[in-house]
Amino acid sequence: MAVAFWKYHALGNDYLVIDPERGGEALQPWQIQRLCHRHFGIGADGILWGPWPAPAADFGVRIFNPDGSEAEKSGNGLRIFARYLWDQGKVGEAPFQVQTLGGRVSVQVQQQGRQVRVEMGQVSFYSRLIPVTGPDREVIQEPITVLDQTFTFTAATIGNPHCVIIVPETRPELAQTYGPLIEHHPLFPQRTNVQFVQVLSRQRLRLEIWERGAGYTLASGSSSSAAAAAAYRLGLCDAEVTVEMPGGELHISMTPDLYVTMTGPVQGIAQGVLAPDIFAG
Questions:
Q1: Which of 6, 43, 56, 58 has the least CB density, counted as fewest CB within 10 Å?
Q2: pLDDT 10s digits, 53-88
Q3: Domain 4-114+266-273 shares a fold with domain 122-263
Q4: How much is the pTM?
Q5: Residue 208 neighbours by CB under 8 Å, 6+ apart
Q6: Does 4-114+266-273 carry CATH code 1.10.1780.10?
Protein backbone atom coordinates (compact mmCIF):
# COMPACT_ATOMS: atom_id res chain seq x y z
CA MET A 1 0.00 0.00 0.00
CA ALA A 2 1.23 3.48 -0.87
CA VAL A 3 1.93 5.62 2.20
CA ALA A 4 0.38 9.08 2.07
CA PHE A 5 1.65 12.15 3.91
CA TRP A 6 0.31 15.62 4.67
CA LYS A 7 2.52 18.57 5.48
CA TYR A 8 1.49 21.65 7.48
CA HIS A 9 3.23 24.43 9.34
CA ALA A 10 2.30 26.37 12.45
CA LEU A 11 4.29 29.63 12.55
CA GLY A 12 7.08 28.05 10.50
CA ASN A 13 7.24 24.92 12.68
CA ASP A 14 6.48 22.23 10.09
CA TYR A 15 5.27 18.67 10.61
CA LEU A 16 4.39 15.69 8.48
CA VAL A 17 1.20 13.80 9.31
CA ILE A 18 1.45 10.05 8.67
CA ASP A 19 -1.97 8.46 9.08
CA PRO A 20 -2.03 4.75 10.03
CA GLU A 21 -5.43 4.52 8.36
CA ARG A 22 -3.76 5.53 5.06
CA GLY A 23 -1.02 2.90 5.12
CA GLY A 24 1.27 4.65 7.56
CA GLU A 25 2.93 1.99 9.72
CA ALA A 26 4.83 2.95 12.86
CA LEU A 27 8.24 4.28 11.81
CA GLN A 28 11.68 3.36 13.06
CA PRO A 29 13.89 6.22 14.35
CA TRP A 30 16.14 6.08 11.26
CA GLN A 31 13.09 6.33 9.00
CA ILE A 32 11.89 9.40 10.92
CA GLN A 33 15.34 10.96 10.53
CA ARG A 34 15.24 10.31 6.79
CA LEU A 35 11.75 11.75 6.28
CA CYS A 36 12.56 14.89 8.28
CA HIS A 37 15.90 15.50 6.52
CA ARG A 38 15.78 18.68 4.45
CA HIS A 39 17.83 17.14 1.60
CA PHE A 40 17.33 13.37 1.69
CA GLY A 41 13.68 13.39 2.77
CA ILE A 42 10.65 15.64 2.67
CA GLY A 43 11.94 17.92 5.39
CA ALA A 44 10.13 18.64 8.65
CA ASP A 45 10.53 19.61 12.31
CA GLY A 46 8.77 16.39 13.28
CA ILE A 47 6.24 13.70 12.45
CA LEU A 48 2.71 13.25 13.77
CA TRP A 49 1.63 9.60 13.65
CA GLY A 50 -2.11 9.33 14.00
CA PRO A 51 -4.93 9.21 14.57
CA TRP A 52 -4.90 5.99 16.54
CA PRO A 53 -7.69 4.72 18.85
CA ALA A 54 -7.28 6.20 22.34
CA PRO A 55 -9.52 4.67 25.03
CA ALA A 56 -9.72 7.87 27.10
CA ALA A 57 -9.90 10.40 24.23
CA ASP A 58 -11.45 10.94 20.81
CA PHE A 59 -8.10 10.53 19.05
CA GLY A 60 -4.53 9.62 19.85
CA VAL A 61 -1.36 10.99 18.28
CA ARG A 62 2.33 10.15 18.67
CA ILE A 63 4.78 13.01 18.15
CA PHE A 64 8.32 12.36 16.89
CA ASN A 65 11.29 14.74 16.77
CA PRO A 66 13.52 14.84 13.67
CA ASP A 67 16.25 12.96 15.55
CA GLY A 68 13.87 10.00 15.89
CA SER A 69 13.06 10.50 19.58
CA GLU A 70 9.46 10.69 20.76
CA ALA A 71 8.11 13.92 22.26
CA GLU A 72 5.54 13.94 25.03
CA LYS A 73 3.67 16.97 23.74
CA SER A 74 3.84 19.71 21.09
CA GLY A 75 1.54 22.69 20.96
CA ASN A 76 2.24 23.40 17.29
CA GLY A 77 2.02 19.69 16.53
CA LEU A 78 -1.37 19.46 18.21
CA ARG A 79 -2.68 22.41 16.23
CA ILE A 80 -1.46 20.82 13.02
CA PHE A 81 -2.98 17.46 13.95
CA ALA A 82 -6.29 19.19 14.64
CA ARG A 83 -6.16 20.90 11.25
CA TYR A 84 -5.51 17.53 9.60
CA LEU A 85 -8.52 16.03 11.36
CA TRP A 86 -10.61 19.01 10.21
CA ASP A 87 -9.43 18.66 6.62
CA GLN A 88 -10.31 14.96 6.67
CA GLY A 89 -13.81 15.67 8.00
CA LYS A 90 -13.15 13.84 11.25
CA VAL A 91 -13.92 16.85 13.47
CA GLY A 92 -16.08 19.95 13.31
CA GLU A 93 -16.25 23.11 15.40
CA ALA A 94 -16.96 21.32 18.70
CA PRO A 95 -14.07 20.70 21.13
CA PHE A 96 -12.55 17.22 21.14
CA GLN A 97 -9.97 15.30 23.15
CA VAL A 98 -6.53 14.19 21.96
CA GLN A 99 -4.31 11.78 23.87
CA THR A 100 -0.55 12.39 23.78
CA LEU A 101 2.35 10.79 25.62
CA GLY A 102 2.36 13.91 27.81
CA GLY A 103 -1.34 13.74 28.69
CA ARG A 104 -4.79 14.40 27.28
CA VAL A 105 -5.69 17.82 25.89
CA SER A 106 -8.85 19.53 24.69
CA VAL A 107 -8.70 21.01 21.20
CA GLN A 108 -11.04 23.21 19.16
CA VAL A 109 -10.70 24.17 15.50
CA GLN A 110 -11.74 27.73 14.71
CA GLN A 111 -12.06 29.99 11.64
CA GLN A 112 -12.55 27.09 9.22
CA GLY A 113 -9.28 25.48 10.24
CA ARG A 114 -7.14 28.61 10.14
CA GLN A 115 -6.91 28.87 13.94
CA VAL A 116 -6.77 26.17 16.61
CA ARG A 117 -7.24 26.49 20.36
CA VAL A 118 -5.54 23.96 22.63
CA GLU A 119 -5.97 23.56 26.38
CA MET A 120 -2.38 22.58 27.05
CA GLY A 121 -2.79 21.55 30.69
CA GLN A 122 -1.29 22.70 33.97
CA VAL A 123 2.29 23.90 34.28
CA SER A 124 4.35 22.58 37.20
CA PHE A 125 7.75 23.69 38.46
CA TYR A 126 8.38 20.60 40.64
CA SER A 127 11.72 18.94 39.97
CA ARG A 128 10.56 15.32 40.10
CA LEU A 129 7.85 15.97 37.50
CA ILE A 130 10.02 17.84 34.98
CA PRO A 131 12.50 16.10 35.83
CA VAL A 132 15.47 18.04 37.24
CA THR A 133 18.16 16.36 39.33
CA GLY A 134 18.70 17.15 43.00
CA PRO A 135 16.30 17.36 45.95
CA ASP A 136 12.54 17.63 45.49
CA ARG A 137 11.74 21.29 45.03
CA GLU A 138 10.20 23.91 42.82
CA VAL A 139 12.93 24.90 40.40
CA ILE A 140 12.57 28.67 40.44
CA GLN A 141 15.40 31.04 39.51
CA GLU A 142 18.37 28.71 39.94
CA PRO A 143 21.83 29.10 38.35
CA ILE A 144 23.08 27.06 35.41
CA THR A 145 26.53 27.46 33.84
CA VAL A 146 27.39 26.59 30.25
CA LEU A 147 30.59 27.59 28.48
CA ASP A 148 31.47 31.09 29.69
CA GLN A 149 28.01 32.06 30.90
CA THR A 150 25.94 31.57 34.04
CA PHE A 151 22.20 32.00 33.53
CA THR A 152 19.32 32.06 35.99
CA PHE A 153 16.64 29.58 34.95
CA THR A 154 13.19 28.36 35.95
CA ALA A 155 12.34 24.79 35.00
CA ALA A 156 8.80 23.75 34.10
CA THR A 157 6.75 20.94 32.66
CA ILE A 158 3.50 21.02 30.75
CA GLY A 159 3.83 17.35 29.88
CA ASN A 160 7.34 17.90 28.51
CA PRO A 161 10.42 19.56 30.10
CA HIS A 162 11.42 23.20 29.70
CA CYS A 163 14.23 25.48 30.87
CA VAL A 164 13.10 29.12 30.87
CA ILE A 165 15.74 31.86 31.01
CA ILE A 166 14.71 35.51 31.32
CA VAL A 167 17.19 37.83 29.58
CA PRO A 168 17.29 41.61 29.01
CA GLU A 169 17.39 41.06 25.24
CA THR A 170 17.02 37.82 23.34
CA ARG A 171 18.52 36.98 19.96
CA PRO A 172 18.93 33.83 17.86
CA GLU A 173 22.59 33.39 18.81
CA LEU A 174 21.65 32.78 22.46
CA ALA A 175 19.49 29.79 21.60
CA GLN A 176 21.85 28.51 18.92
CA THR A 177 24.97 28.75 21.10
CA TYR A 178 23.75 27.74 24.54
CA GLY A 179 20.59 25.80 23.69
CA PRO A 180 22.26 22.50 22.71
CA LEU A 181 24.45 22.55 25.81
CA ILE A 182 21.53 23.23 28.14
CA GLU A 183 19.42 20.58 26.38
CA HIS A 184 22.01 17.95 27.35
CA HIS A 185 23.00 19.44 30.73
CA PRO A 186 23.26 16.89 33.59
CA LEU A 187 20.51 18.77 35.44
CA PHE A 188 18.02 17.41 32.90
CA PRO A 189 18.12 13.59 32.77
CA GLN A 190 15.54 13.49 29.96
CA ARG A 191 17.04 16.52 28.19
CA THR A 192 15.02 19.72 27.93
CA ASN A 193 13.57 22.39 25.68
CA VAL A 194 15.18 25.79 26.18
CA GLN A 195 13.59 29.25 25.95
CA PHE A 196 15.35 32.60 26.16
CA VAL A 197 12.65 35.11 27.09
CA GLN A 198 12.58 38.89 26.79
CA VAL A 199 9.74 40.63 28.60
CA LEU A 200 8.57 43.40 26.26
CA SER A 201 5.59 44.38 28.42
CA ARG A 202 3.12 42.75 30.77
CA GLN A 203 1.13 41.65 27.72
CA ARG A 204 3.96 40.63 25.37
CA LEU A 205 6.97 38.28 25.51
CA ARG A 206 9.64 37.59 22.90
CA LEU A 207 11.17 34.10 22.65
CA GLU A 208 14.12 32.39 21.03
CA ILE A 209 13.85 28.61 21.27
CA TRP A 210 16.09 25.56 21.19
CA GLU A 211 13.84 22.52 20.94
CA ARG A 212 14.83 19.15 22.36
CA GLY A 213 15.50 16.72 19.53
CA ALA A 214 14.90 19.36 16.85
CA GLY A 215 17.34 22.23 17.40
CA TYR A 216 16.77 25.91 16.71
CA THR A 217 13.05 26.40 16.09
CA LEU A 218 11.06 29.29 14.66
CA ALA A 219 8.12 28.69 17.02
CA SER A 220 6.89 26.27 19.67
CA GLY A 221 3.51 26.05 21.36
CA SER A 222 4.62 24.14 24.45
CA SER A 223 7.65 26.44 24.81
CA SER A 224 5.38 29.48 24.61
CA SER A 225 3.10 27.96 27.25
CA ALA A 226 5.94 27.13 29.63
CA ALA A 227 7.71 30.46 29.14
CA ALA A 228 4.52 32.44 29.71
CA ALA A 229 3.72 30.43 32.84
CA ALA A 230 7.23 30.97 34.22
CA ALA A 231 7.07 34.72 33.55
CA TYR A 232 3.63 34.85 35.15
CA ARG A 233 4.87 32.95 38.20
CA LEU A 234 7.74 35.42 38.52
CA GLY A 235 5.32 38.35 38.36
CA LEU A 236 6.63 39.61 35.04
CA CYS A 237 3.51 39.36 32.88
CA ASP A 238 -0.27 39.19 33.01
CA ALA A 239 -2.45 36.10 32.66
CA GLU A 240 -3.24 37.03 29.03
CA VAL A 241 -0.10 37.42 26.96
CA THR A 242 1.06 37.42 23.34
CA VAL A 243 4.21 35.40 22.71
CA GLU A 244 6.31 36.69 19.82
CA MET A 245 8.72 34.29 18.04
CA PRO A 246 10.64 34.43 14.74
CA GLY A 247 7.84 32.46 13.06
CA GLY A 248 4.97 34.57 14.40
CA GLU A 249 2.74 35.03 17.43
CA LEU A 250 0.65 32.87 19.77
CA HIS A 251 -1.93 33.95 22.30
CA ILE A 252 -1.53 32.41 25.75
CA SER A 253 -4.15 32.54 28.48
CA MET A 254 -3.50 31.30 32.03
CA THR A 255 -5.63 30.63 35.09
CA PRO A 256 -4.30 31.51 38.58
CA ASP A 257 -3.30 27.85 39.08
CA LEU A 258 -1.46 27.85 35.73
CA TYR A 259 -3.74 25.92 33.42
CA VAL A 260 -2.66 27.19 30.01
CA THR A 261 -4.71 27.68 26.83
CA MET A 262 -2.90 28.41 23.57
CA THR A 263 -4.42 29.77 20.35
CA GLY A 264 -2.65 30.15 17.03
CA PRO A 265 -2.70 29.62 13.26
CA VAL A 266 -2.08 26.60 11.04
CA GLN A 267 -1.45 26.48 7.28
CA GLY A 268 -1.41 23.59 4.86
CA ILE A 269 1.65 23.08 2.66
CA ALA A 270 1.34 19.89 0.64
CA GLN A 271 0.13 16.33 0.48
CA GLY A 272 1.47 13.40 -1.47
CA VAL A 273 2.66 9.81 -1.46
CA LEU A 274 6.04 8.58 -0.27
CA ALA A 275 8.26 7.24 -3.05
CA PRO A 276 8.88 3.47 -2.77
CA ASP A 277 12.65 3.95 -2.46
CA ILE A 278 12.70 6.82 0.05
CA PHE A 279 14.15 4.50 2.69
CA ALA A 280 16.57 2.76 0.35
CA GLY A 281 20.32 3.26 0.64
A1: 56
A2: 999 999 999 999 999 999 999 999 999 999 999 999
A3: yes
A4: 0.94
A5: 170, 171, 172, 174, 175, 195, 196, 245, 246
A6: no
